């Protein structure tokens, strides 16, 4: 091949490489500019999958406490039990000894004159033993269990709820009345608007009974007086 033909061939090859490089750079710049124009990539969520659907350690959060307002009704489960056991033991012992002698004594004579009566100086000697032992045991058990609906009287700024409740039952000639009052923390009220009496502070429970059944078990006034005097 002659020299002009080789030079022409080299020139064409150089132009071809130059064109490819320019084309590649142009495409890269165009892609970068297009990416800048489109902004950050948008991540499309897979679906409406929740964390509890795939997490092995997910625990359901506790339900939110109910909103308590004045005049709301809260059911109180009253369950109070008390037991008192008292054991006592009293032991007393007293020992005594005495001796007495009558050396001089007078008596009235036939004419009401005074005459000596202790001619032989009579004497008395004796001992006294006194022992008292008392053993006592007292077991007192009380329990009360019922449900009562209480009305919210006030809600304090710190979340404390003031409650009052009253419940009365009348059957024929008998009458029963229950009263309850106290304060409870709002978080101690369950979502179903129930609470336990043991969570109530300053708890006051009153139970009043009247009627024929109560009168049949009531102690009469004479027995009460004897219990108060209790001479023995």
TrEMBL record:
Molecular function GO terms recorded: cytoskeletal motor activity
Example of a GO biological process term: bacterial-type flagellum-dependent cell motility
GO CC annotation, single: bacterial-type flagellum basal body, distal rod, L ring
Compartments (UniProt record): Bacterial flagellum basal body; Cell outer membrane
Keywords on record: Bacterial flagellum, Cell outer membrane, Membrane, Signal
Major subcellular location class: other
InterPro entries associated with the record: Flag_Lring
Purpose: Assembles around the rod to form the L-ring and probably protects the motor/basal body from shearing forces during rotation.
PANTHER family tied to this protein: FLAGELLAR L-RING PROTEIN
Family classification: Belongs to the FlgH family.
Name of this chain's protein: Flagellar L-ring protein
